[in-house]
User: Fold this.
Amino acid sequence: MKQTPEIKGKILVDLHCHPSKNNSVDEIVKKLSEGITGLIPSSYEDFLSYEDVLNLPGAKELEKGLFAEVYYGGKKGYVLPCQEINTGFHVQAVGCKKMLPKVNDAREAIEIIHKEGGIAVLNHPYVVPTDRRIIRYRLVNDAELKAVEDLCAMVDEIEAFNAQNINLLPSVAWMKIANQQATALATKHNFHGIASSDAHRLISQVRTAGIWVSSDYPCIDSLMRSILKGDFARHQDYVSIPSFLKGMFFS
Assistant:
């Protein structure tokens, strides 16, 4: 995978990450001491959480339950807790201090996020989970297309680029089209469209994709303002096929 560039006066934010706590402490701290990383735990017990990070060397919480600093080797990065509610569609909460309940309706999830003062992002809008062990995700069907359009009227942003949507197997897992469709959807509904890695287990995948925001005064409020105003630029790279396979199936 490509080395992430640096842009003067900007910091790269990856809001959608599921790295494993089984990566070495040194690897985790080194990666999190760069950029801004949104950590999303899940039912998988090995996924790294915001609370796990607070116990690592070099970590210091700046805003209770919302934003922390990680210092390593002369570099300083930031971490925030995020949540991803699986309602069939994946709705992500940014800036919510409270752990949100599991609900089955995406519209209800968005309403809860807004009630708690957070931002709601529709992650990979054209890709939904399956109940299969091997083919875990699929493209939305015709019946779900209208729901995607309707949700765009409620969310604050959509994920226009997901680094995991690679072309793996023709006709079975040929997923880059989902990013093309999501980018078009963002334009249609006047979103700027975020990019994220959706890193799975491998800490090396974090910030493969993300958004560039101003590096002045990094905090949860400035980050949320940047997202709501569309004051960011996308950084878009895909994870490699070996990295995808290892992260999804062999870690």
